[in-house]
Specification:
Layout: E1 12-16, H1 23-29, E2 35-38, H2 44-54, E3 58-62, H3 71-84, E4 88-93, H4 95-108, E5 112-116, E6 127-132, E7 135-140, E8 148-152, H5 161-179, H6 186-208, H7 213-232, H8 237-249, H9 253-268, H10 273-283, H11 288-298, H12 315-324, H13 335-347
Parallel strand pairs: 1-8, 2-3, 2-4, 4-5, 5-8
Antiparallel strand pairs: 6-7
Bound molecules: nicotinamide-adenine-dinucleotide.
Nicotinamide-adenine-dinucleotide binds near residues 94, 163 and 254.
């Protein structure tokens, strides 16, 4: 066993079917009495129903969360927090809604109950990405880690197949990078392998039948395991590339992760053999990069940056940006090789 340092994150995690019934109990357990329920506009009805369920413990709803946590939206939500005298937030939704709860916590220290409905994993991390003036910045601070995660598998039954597929691949990306993280450790590695295996098993079944309860349960468990990976160790090339592509070319988050992952994995394949063996084992394949591509293809997910609307003449700029601020990666980040990686991701080739 290699020497390691491991810091576990202080979070209460409740997982199961129908756990939403316990939301009031969890708000009270935090010592709170005026919860502001957050959602996207698309999940407004579910947020309003949740407020009804909270009864006197609900101060109101703010159904204004959007992707990438723009500061203007947070400021509007902050005004609602003040007007209603909210003393905690309950974020019902995917990474966008969780992000808004975190942004409010950063500014107010209000406790958070996160109720995830996608596989993004943000609820399990002390990481917040915010955008201001078109620029996305990411910070890591314990102030934004939700106190409670309530996983109710029933809420994921409505996640459309396309988002199920890409959100699941987004989760797998956290685990792949955790397996070769510089600050990796055996606990995170075990979670990573378990998380990838659970999602790789569940996602094809869910694309065929979104109402498959066992597969929904496995997928949400996998999302948590992968989220813990993202929360406990540092990420590398894959996450940096997706951050650059998403921020600069306004590409959709989960889809970008899905497209880039096989290619970023191929870039690191020779430099991280042990991690590659773990990923391949979890996928039940011989080679990790091709296995990830094949999984995405079998799910009918997008395979190329071209499909996501990335302009081909932006590839050079993306390579410049990705290579501009050096960061740790198992294989050194070299501009020419990154440009090749991006070219392959733009075309959507099967790696190897
Ligand atoms: P999202 O939260 O933007 O959700 C996408 C859409 O799906 C929304 O319209 C939403 O209302 C809808 N939706 C969500 N769950 C649904 C369900 N069960 N049924 C029907 N519709 C549903 O997408 P996402 O991929 O979960 O989150 C992406 C955002 O999260 C990005 O901004 C990304 O940067 C952030 N993120 C942050 C972290 C972190 O640790 N800070 C980790 C992962 C993602």
């Amino acid at each position: 066993m290699q020497p390691f340092t491991y810091e576990s994150l202080p979070q209460r995690v409740v997982f199961g079917w129908g756990t939403l019934d316990r939301v009031a109990e969890d708000v009270e357990r935090l010592g709170c009495r005026r919860a502001l329920v957050l959602s996207t506009p698309e999940q407004r009805e579910a947020a309003e129903a949740l407020a009804v369920r909270l009864g006197p413990l609900a101060a109101g709803t703010f159904p204004g969360a959007v992707m990438h946590t723009p500061v203007e939206v947070t400021e509007r939500a902050m005004q609602v927090v003040r007007d209603l005298g909210a003393d905690c937030t309950v974020a019902l939704g995917g990474g966008s809604t969780t992000g808004l709860g975190k942004a409010i916590a950063l500014r107010t220290d209000l406790p958070q109950v996160a109720i995830p409905t996608t596989y993004a994993g943000s609820e399990a991390t002390p990481i917040l990405g915010e955008t201001e003036g078109g620029k996305k910045t990411t910070r890591r601070t314990m102030k934004v880690l939700p106190e409670v995660i309530l996983y109710d598998v029933a809420l994921t039954l409505t996640l459309p197949p396309a988002l199920t597929a890409t959100s699941g691949m987004n989760a797998i990306a956290h685990a792949v990078e955790a397996l070769y993280a510089r600050d990796g450790n055996p606990i995170t590695a075990a979670m990573a392998e378990q998380g990838i295996a659970a999602l790789a098993r569940a996602l094809p079944r869910l694309v065929a039948d979104p109402s498959d309860r066992d597969a929904r349960s496995d997928a949400l468990f996998g999302a948590w395991a992968c989220g813990v990976c993202l929360g406990t160790v540092g990420m590398a090339l894959h996450h940096k590339l997706c951050h650059t592509l998403g921020g600069t070319f306004d590409l959709p988050h989960a889809q970008t992760h899905t497209v880039v992952l096989p290619h970023a994995t191929a870039y690191n394949e020779a430099a991280a053999p042990e991690a590659m063996r773990a990923v391949a084992r979890a996928l039940g394949v011989d080679r990790a990069p091709a296995g990830l591509h094949d999984l995405a293809r079998s799910l009918g997910a997008p395979l190329s940056l071209r499909e996501l609307g990335m302009p081909q003449d932006g590839l050079d700029r993306a390579a410049d940006l990705a290579a501009a601020n050096p960061y740790w990666n198992p294989r050194p980040v070299e501009r020419a090789a990154i440009r090749d990686l991006l070219g392959a991701a733009w075309e959507g080739h099967r790696p190897g």
